[in-house]
Design brief:
This protein is mainly beta. The protein has no helices and eleven strands. The chain has one domain. Strands 1-2-3-4-7-8-11 form a seven-stranded antiparallel beta sheet, with no helix packed on it. The chain has a two-stranded antiparallel ribbon with strand order 5-6.
Length: about 170
């Protein structure tokens, strides 16, 4: 017969519930390197290799855990032009990864570029910084995440986004 215990199956007429079972393992390597190339230029990079999988007792044993890429990393640079002006660049990349627990849907790899331009000044004796940020400069289309149980619930990444902020440091 059909098992109707709560949490064992999803009922389309009510909120979906699932039983969490089994265990998982995540292992890998993370490395980062940063350097002040000069008193005005700072650079850095980071890389992560992650192998995350479900283990015995899981609904889908020995499958990759969704939303965890094997490879991800970033490279950045920041230039302090003078006492007032600062510019920054960040490139972030992520390898492909599975979107669901059975590992039937793949979210493709992507890379985004972010820029920052800042101007620091003093107004009425208060240190202020005006900052312009451009995230995803080239308007890269990508998928940010998915729902573990529903292959059709995949969230797109944010498109190009421009913001201006004012910071008061104390």
């Amino acid at each position: 017969g059909e098992d109707s215990r709560p949490g064992d199956r999803a009922d389309p007429d009510v909120a979906r519930t699932f039983r969490v079972n089994g265990s998982s393992r995540s292992q890998g390597v993370e490395a980062s390197l940063s350097a002040d190339v000069s008193d005005r230029l700072a650079v850095g990079m980071a890389y992560a290799y992650t192998d995350a999988e479900s283990l015995e007792g899981s609904l889908y044993p020995f499958r990759q855990i969704p939303n965890v890429p094997y490879n991800s990393g970033n490279v950045y640079a920041q230039m302090q032009w003078d006492a007032h002006w600062r510019s920054g660049l960040n490139i972030y990349a992520q390898g492909d990864r599975y979107a669901d627990q059975p590992n039937t849907t793949v979210l493709p790899a992507y890379a985004t570029v972010d820029l920052v331009q800042a101007y620091a000044f003093t107004a009425a004796g208060h240190p202020l910084e005006l900052q312009l940020n451009i995230r995803n400069l080239f308007d890269e289309a990508y998928f940010a995440a998915s729902h573990l149980h529903f292959t059709k619930y995949i969230m797109p990444g944010e498109g190009r986004n421009v913001s201006v902020s004012m910071m008061y440091r104390f």
